[in-house]
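Hi everyone, sorry if this is the wrong subforum. Our group has a chain we'd like a structural model of before ordering constructs, and none of us has done structure prediction before. Sequence below.
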Amino acid sequence: MLDMDTTETIDVQVETQYLPEQSMVDEERYMFSYTITITNQSELSAQLISRSWLITDSNGEVNTVEGDGVVGQQPILQPSQSYRYTSGCILKSPLGTMEGFYIFVQEDGKKVKAPIDVFTLAMPNIIN
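Answer:
Right subforum, don't worry. Here is the predicted structure as tokens:
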């Protein structure tokens, strides 16, 4: 599946937040939310069919998460349309990263991979 074309016409923006009320520092459980905005900058509609995440914490633990759609949805984005969702991630350290890609099927039937650049999950004041 990784031999498909990577598209630059799907823009992915990420905002993250540390959730202290859902974290248990004494138990090494650090909860983060991330809000993703996906914008279709192509002239073709495209349906998000799957996702793949590589999650790394500052202890060096790496997890891969793959699955259909996002938050139970497989949205179809028309040209210039955006889709926004919020999800969460639990780390065993106060600092980590996520990166990955979405797989879309364009209206012409072509599957394309939309990269998600690495972003940081960090408890406030953990990084100067």
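For your construct planning: Strands lie at 5-6, 10-18, 30-40, 46-57, 62-68, 76-77, 82-91, 95-106, 111-122. The mean pLDDT is 94.
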